[in-house]
Amino acid sequence: MHRVAIIGCGRMGQQYAEAYTTFPDTEVVAIAEHNPERREAVGRRFGVKALYPDAPSLLNDIVPDIAAIITPSRFYKDAVIACAETGVKGISCDKPIAAVLSDADEMVEICASRGIVFAGGNLQRAMNELQEAARMLRAGEFGQIVGAAIHQWGNGEISGGGCQHVSALRLLTGAEVEAVVAWATPKELLDSGNDDGLRVNGRFRLTSGVECSVFSEPNPYQGADVWTADSLVRWNWGPPELYRGFEDDGTRKRLHHEYAPYDWNQFGYLTGSIRSFIAAIETGSELAVSGHDLRQALEVAIAARESARLGAVPIKLPLKDRSLSLYPRAYRWSGGDAEGLVQPISEALGGPRL
Fold this sequence. Notes:
Blueprint: E1 2-7, H1 11-22, E2 26-32, H2 36-46, E3 51-52, H3 55-61, E4 66-69, H4 76-86, E5 90-93, H5 101-113, E6 117-119, H6 128-138, E7 147-150, H7 162-173, E8 177-185, E9 199-206, E10 211-214, E11 224-227, E12 231-235, E13 241-246, E14 252-255, H8 269-283, H9 291-309, E15 315-316, H10 330-334, H11 345-348
Parallel strand pairs: 1-2, 1-4, 2-3, 4-5, 5-6, 7-10
Antiparallel strand pairs: 7-11, 8-9, 8-15, 9-10, 11-12, 12-13, 13-14
């Protein structure tokens, strides 16, 4: 039985709390939440009596096996470091991991140096079907990968939302982004410091030699395509569609592939993320989503913004200047309370979303 602390109990934190109280091998033993009314409501909802206003006060009393940090992004670094220094076995945070690249580095490095499993969060990369399609690609079942594309990258949010695309691309191709060239609209946002409303087009070169075209403008697709000479794997914000061969009219021939059933599916791809996290703590297995994955997505977004800001100049990764930053939209960075979007207490108690 893994003892879990939930740090941050807004809407997403409540989803984590529900998952961890549902699984038979985890128990939520403590909650940290800055909003006192919501803290009491969520504690009552999930039967947790150890309630704290912040991570330091929680960690002063309790050292859990797992710390699930689902605060606004601006608080991730301090909470991750505090948990790591206290001796928590496994730490997870959600997206985006940080704004400043060196902050992401610090989180990844302190966990690695102490042998702590550092997991990412609620990304489609953890979807069972996407993981299976990636294994098929990596096993060579479709042949050698020759091309890739990303569609509607971040939908005007290349860090906060775009990490979904970059993480799925890296998983499907088994490669890293090693160079970026990009251009963006509206240009006045390039020096604003954040990605809210920033639409970026361009091209990624992967370490495998594959070139990936990047489109931000609306089109029929929303996710990522990876193709071989005669096959296509299309992640379109759901279980990937698989194609092999061509019809007489030249269109691709859809494969009616049945993905393997998954025992844990109560909470969509959040389940896959959490279950792989628990398995990694127990056995050292590979994470479906790691803190490293979140850092890589942030670095690609920063590199793309820099390339566009400099006039479509090619940028090589890893970036040498780790002080570079890209802030997400205010809701992700500071949270709903700070933006005047306070959750009703009735909803925090488990009532319908208002």
